[in-house]
Design a protein that fits this description.
This protein is α/β, with parallel strands linked by helices and 391 residues long. The chain has helices at residues 8-22, 28-35, 39-51, 118-135, 175-183, 192-203, 263-266, 268-279, 285-294, 297-321, 337-350, 353-358, 370-380, 383-389, and strands at 55-57, 74-76, 82-88, 92-99, 104-111, 143-150, 154-155, 160-161, 187-191, 212-217, 221-227, 230-231, 325-329, 360-363. It is globular.
């Protein structure tokens, strides 16, 4: 979709679209209050948006219908436009086609070895995107853009991956630019934890939180940080790489090249490896989670020790940023309270007392879909501006 400068009428259109985007439902009079536009201007703009198929009027709820002539609630028409999200993990590619409300109308994941196969992985992602549009009969002109997240630090500007040791085959690859070339869709790229943070805040466990940390505990460990309602990027887009904060000074060499990083002691793979070394037989991540659920003492102890280290690192962020909420996602989140409780205990022990005592720790609500929904959400966040400028 073409992004062009706005004229004065389109500025008013943008204000109305933004207000509708931010509210599940509203009325013309409420739009006038929120936008600061006159009722006559709002009425004219809404008429245009209705005619363009971007907005729809709905019958008021029968139980709350007032006497007299009711004001018909206005909402963005969910099927007026779409966004594509693509989640590139270490061992999978997931693609979702989402409507304006962020609801997936097509969502598929394919298992594949990603770390040393960038070309094949990007071809697969492009094929899945094309399949989604074909199967849902979606005109590309109605697609606002493509959001992509990937399991490696993303340096801005330029979308260059810090892939050394993490995704070794991707060194020098710019996946956003490559997928834009393959699909013809305007593309935005982010780290997977940043995408998960956006999704959980907009659609999941962090819907009411302006200051939160999303922690992704999978093959890698990362954090997406929301402060004052905005994502914290850092000067180069690399904020939140907590997996590479040192946890044990004389620990194992991390894939990033440093020693004793949090990932080396607290990722699901590292915990499973510890048990495998202790017990003398293979232990997969899925085995670890089953053993924890069954109450196996060794597995529970290993999980709790890892949770303490995670909490120790998060305590520094809690003291620095004073978030109200920490949302735990990724593979290890399936352990539930057996993981959350020792993380919280460790935070309270090591963080500044008022901050540590106030922060809540919860599991993510979106599970395996958090990152792909956040990827699409990067585009949908800009939907009002893109729709306002559409010709």
């Amino acid at each position: 979709m073409i992004d062009t400068p706005l004229n004065l009428r389109e500025v008013g259109r943008l204000r109305v679209l933004q207000a509708l985007h931010d509210a599940e439902s509203t009325s013309r009079s409420e739009l006038a209050q929120v936008t600061g536009l006159s009722r006559a201007t709002v009425s004219s703009l809404v008429t245009d948006l209705l005619a363009a198929g971007l907005v729809e009027e709905n019958e008021p709820d029968a139980q709350s219908r007032p006497t007299g002539r009711p004001a018909l609630p206005l909402t963005l028409r969910a099927s007026a436009a779409y966004a594509v999200g693509t989640d590139i993990g270490h061992q999978h590619v997931r693609v979702a086609l989402c409507d304006l409300r962020g609801t997936p109308i097509w969502n598929t994941a394919v298992a594949t070895e990603v770390d040393r196969a960038p070309g094949e992985t990007l071809d697969l992602a492009a094929d899945l995107i094309g399949r989604a549009l074909r199967e849902k009969n979606t005109d590309r002109k109605r697609v606002l853009g493509l959001g992509v997240d990937i399991a490696a630090p993303v340096r801005e500007p330029g979308g260059v991956l810090e892939a050394h040791g993490i995704m070794p085959g991707w060194v020098g690859v710019q996946p956003g630019a490559e997928l834009e070339r393959r699909t013809g869709l305007t593309t935005r790229l982010a780290n997977d934890a940043d995408a998960g943070a956006l999704a959980e805040r907009r659609y999941g466990a962090g819907r009411s939180a302006d200051d939160m940390i999303y922690v992704r505990l999978s093959a890698g460990i990362g954090a997406g940080i929301i402060t004052g309602g905005r994502r914290l990027n850092g000067s180069g887009g690399l904020a939140g790489e907590i997996g590479h904060i040192q946890a044990t000074p004389r620990g194992r060499i991390c894939r990033c090249g440093n020693r004793g990083c949090l990932e080396t002691v607290a990722s699901p793979v590292s915990i499973a490896r510890l048990l495998q070394s202790s017990w003398g037989h293979p232990v997969a991540v899925a085995d670890l989670l089953r053993l924890v659920e069954a109450g196996n003492r060794g597995a529970v102890r290993a999980l709790e020790d890892a949770a303490e280290e995670i909490g120790r690192v998060l305590a520094h962020l809690v003291t620095l940023l004073n978030p109200e909420l920490i949302v735990i996602g990724g593979d290890l989140a399936a352990a539930g309270e057996r993981l959350f409780e020792p993380i919280g205990r460790s935070i309270r022990h090591y963080a500044l007392a008022p901050s540590g005592e106030c922060v809540r720790i919860v599991g993510g609500e979106l599970g395996d879909h958090a990152e792909v929904l956040g990827a699409a959400g990067m585009v949908l966040t800009e939907a009002p501006r893109l729709l306002a400028a559409a010709r």
